Amino acid sequence: MNCPHCAYDNLPGSEQCGHCLADLTQLDRPVAQDRVERSLMEDTVRDLHPSPAITLPPTASVQQALDLMLQHQIGAIPIVDGGALVGILTERDLLTSASDPSVASTPLPVGDLMTPNPATVRAGDSLAFALHQMDVGGYRHLPVLENGQLLGIISVRDMLRRIMRVCKTRGW
């Protein structure tokens, strides 16, 4: 990759020119071909207006979690202990544990079924980054952090709604 400032031939993927030390990171960025790609690359998770998270402590019962999920029609609940995100309880966690007879017959706290240390995104991350996190991890929900604090949660459905809104503005 040639430096646009001094024309030095750098190794592909170099973040800095080996000759003049110019920043080369912008040269590796893909170029958006349409409005949807531009939105994914430029818009942030904050633009999705993440739903405020309905949280539970790790000591809450599985029944409390189920009741909240049904009442609010949500598929995941961030698990918070002392204000810190420690896990997430998803529909998948519940379905996986329901096949275990010992779980079905014993009242367990959600801390025993949750996925600990969940992947998260920051409010300022691009939508492309969030979608990539969801795809690579196989997640349908991601907690959103801002300044290290839980801001809310986003879902694949939120991403699809955003993409469809962008498509409608183009008359697609």
Overview of the molecule:
The protein has 172 residues and is α+β, with helices and mostly antiparallel strands. It has 2 domains: 1-30; 42-169, CBS-domain, CATH 3.10.580. Helix content is 33%, strand content 17%. The strands form 2 sheets. The chain has a 3-stranded antiparallel β-sheet with strand order 1-2-3. The protein has a 3-stranded mixed β-sheet with strand order 4-5-6. Strand 5 and strand 6 form a beta hairpin. The longest helix is centred in the last third of the chain and has 14 residues, at 156-169. The radius of gyration is 21 Å and the shape is elongated. The two termini are 37 Å apart.
**Which architecture of the largest domain does the CATH hierarchy give at level 2?**
Roll
Distance between the termini: 37 Å
Percent of sequence in beta strands: 15-25%
Largest sheet: 3 strands, antiparallel
Number of strands: 6
- Helix coverage percent: 25-40%
Order of helices and strands: HHEEHHEEHEEH
> Which strand order do you get reading across the main beta sheet?
1-2-3
Shape: elongated
**Count of discrete structural domains:** 2
Number of helices: 6
